Amino acid sequence: MDAVARVEWAQVGAGGHVAWRTSAWWERLVAAREHRAPQRLVHAVLEVAVDGAVQSIDMAPTWGRSAGARRVVLSGPVGSRLLGRCPLFRYELRVVDAPAPPSHVLPVGDELPLPADVLDDLVLVPPLTWGRDEARVGEMWTSNSVVSWLLERHGVTTVGPPPGHRAPGWDAGRRVARR
């Protein structure tokens, strides 16, 4: 049995002013360093439907989350391995029951055929430090990296951020998966 997957693109920081402002300033700095115009930042959300049940990949801090219906796949450090010893600087990669998409999600792309057990491959995701380039691929590891890593492993190479938008970490996931 195959699964049907979609990548949805949520605008970074759309749910809060602090994340939006800090991300916008960070993008301006990166764009200036790379001699290009700043772009809007997006966060990839992979939703997978198997037999009518929809689940998505969520990569977020380990703190401040209710237990809810989620399956934690792995945990990793945020910022540095040393800081990652503290729970405040750790992330979880988890599979959650997918709620209705929030209003700040951009139009979704095409349906992607994937094997029904595609989310089982998440146990193979390297627990790299979020926000660092430990894999030495030229881009930091983020939640976007996990989505692109999973798609690349299953031969889906045509998906990318919407025009005029940038998904930090997207290329890092693809490059790590090709190794």
Describe the fold and architecture:
It is a single chain. By secondary structure, the chain is an alpha+beta fold. The chain has one domain (2-178). It is built from 3 helices and 8 strands. Strands 1, 2, 3, 4, 5, 6, 7 and 8 form an 8-stranded mixed sheet that branches. Helix 2 runs parallel beside helix 3 (170-178).
Whole-number mean pLDDT? 84
Strand content: 25-35%
**Helix content bin:** 10-25%
Spatial shape: globular
The succession of helices and strands, N to C, reads EHEEEEEEHEH
| Overall number of domains | 1
The number of distinct β-strands equals 8
Brief account:
With 179 residues, the protein is an alpha+beta fold. 21% of the residues lie in helices and 30% in strands.
Secondary-structure blueprint of this entry?
Elements: E1 2-11, H1 17-33, E2 40-50, E3 53-61, E4 70-77, E5 90-97, E6 105-106, E7 112-115, H2 143-153, E8 165-166, H3 170-178
Parallel strand pairs: 2-8
Antiparallel strand pairs: 1-2, 1-6, 1-7, 2-3, 3-5, 4-5
Helix pairs in contact: 2-3
Summary keywords:
179 residues; 3 helices; 8 strands; alpha+beta; single chain; eight-stranded mixed sheet
